[in-house]
Amino acid sequence: MTRLFSSAAAALLIATAGIVAVAPSSLSAQTAAEETAVEIVEMVQGSEDAPVTVMEYASFTCPHCASFHEGPYQELKKNYIETGKVKFVFREVYFDKYGVWASMIARCGGPEKFFGITELMFKGQQSWARAGNDGAIAGELRKIGLLAGIENDALDACLNDADKLRSLVAWYQENATADDVNSTPTLFINGEKHANMSYSELSTLLDEALAE
């Protein structure tokens, strides 16, 4: 599992996460009065009326999260989400600026494209996350956005949205604190907290929840 960082580290993340046109100094220099809160959309997959809700806290830069999404999640989607048994909620966790950039790209196409882009992010994590310097990583993330059908101008706007960046980090901190999340991936099944697990373990818990 990957451990979360402190509130102080999150504050530093906000001050240093700007890319493309947003300079880090401009982010840190703005006063609270100048900042605009942006409403963050909860990313949900599956039927709203599903009897069981699974919520995952994950980071785009977490190798364990990538493994979960390449394995157990695929079975979860096929056997439970797509069959109307489970509503799946995905909440991002940020360890570093690259995870925030990935989140901003994933959200750039709206809820319709989010989960498709998320799968591309996790599938290619070892490539884009290890691309080298900031410019190279940003470039690889842009390629994923373009592959998903997002235009360059839209990607520029998403990556340079400083208000969205601050709101995403604040949203993550509020959620993780409220749910006592201290590592990723963390799963909640109908509100009950669980650590990372195999598909066999997950399906057993889901079947028990469905039988209640």
Descriptive terms for the model:
212 residues; alpha+beta; Glutaredoxin; 5-stranded mixed sheet; two-stranded antiparallel sheet; globular
What would you note in describing this structure?
Keywords: Signal. The structure is a single chain. 53% of the residues lie in helices and 13% in strands. With 212 residues, the protein is α+β, with helices and mostly antiparallel strands. Strands 2-4-3-6-7 form a five-stranded mixed beta sheet, with helices on both faces. Strands 1-5 form a two-stranded antiparallel sheet. The protein starts with a strand and ends with a helix. The model is unreliable at 5-12 and 19-33 (pLDDT under 50).
> Any low-confidence stretches, pLDDT <50, length ≥5?
5-12, 19-33
The CATH topology annotation reads as Glutaredoxin
User: Any idea what the CATH superfamily is called?
Assistant: Glutaredoxin
- Percent helix among the residues? 40-55%
Classify the beta-strand content into a percent band: 5-15%
User: Pairing-aware structural class of the strands and helices?
Assistant: alpha+beta
Total beta-strand segments: 7
> Would you list the SSEs in sequence order as H and E?
EHHEEHHEHHHHHHEEEH
How can the largest sheet be summarized?
Answer: 5 strands, mixed
Radius of gyration: 17 Å
**Total helix count?**
11
